[in-house]
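User: Sequence in, structure out. Go.
Assistant: Echoing your sequence, followed by the structure tokens.
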Amino acid sequence: MQKGIESFLRYLDRERGFSERTLCAYQTDLKQFVAFVSDYLQSPGVSPQDVDRACIRHFLGRLRQRGLKRRSVARKLASVRSFFKYLCRMRVIQQNPAYGIASPKLDKRLPLFLDVDRTTRAMELPGGEDFLSWRDRALLEVLYSTGIRVSELVNLDVSSVDGLGGVVKVKGKGRKQRVVPIGRKALESVREYLPWRGRLLQQVGSQNQALFLNRYGKRLSQRAVQKIVTRYLSMVSEQKGLSPHVLRHSFATHLLDAGADLQAVRELLGHVSLSTTQIYTHVTTDRLKKIYHQAHPRA
């Protein structure tokens, strides 16, 4: 089984271009599944041919017994299903034992976002005259102005930003590249940050091409960005679950509120499917309903 998993992960990496984070999630899920199967079948050396539908159903049952949330169970089932689908393609097995096993029904979670006023206040919070303040200001502005993911932000180089064209070249999921517009405020913040970035690189003796750096002149990590953004957002909102993704959700919600076309928003976000973007229409509709019931005399 282990050789099949290694081959599957190489396929996801080289041919599908999955991110390191996604690959780690698949690896964790499949490692857990193999451990369960070995225990379930009382055999340390299990093969894909040993697994049947009953085995997978028992695996899901064990996960539920451990108190895993439906969303986590659904993700692990998806990992197992994709793995056996790959083995079928490679003709290692003839049938996918996970085929037809229904995923747990998931509650629809509306994306968390900030209103325009709170978002603006968050953009203005870094007010110092030092490298970290100018970097944080540019970082927040770029995230909100472009709606890109944190993984896409940390992979930006200085050359990724076309100031004259007003666009940013982004490498998204599956290593797919797209070009997204960047607003005037964000470009101004980046221009003001770049001299501070240059002075830091001179001090540490580095020629790092990354746009956003830590205090040591190295490319900023996703975890660092999450801490930075969450700290500023928590200063303007008491909502739970604040993260950099809230700026991405705010970006999409504010565009749709202002009348932007759903298809255009999908392309800006880098979504493959329009259905993924449509969740934001639920947010705007719910807000319109709330305003209606508050304002209409016969609501």
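User: And one key feature?
Assistant: The first helix runs from residue 2 to 14.
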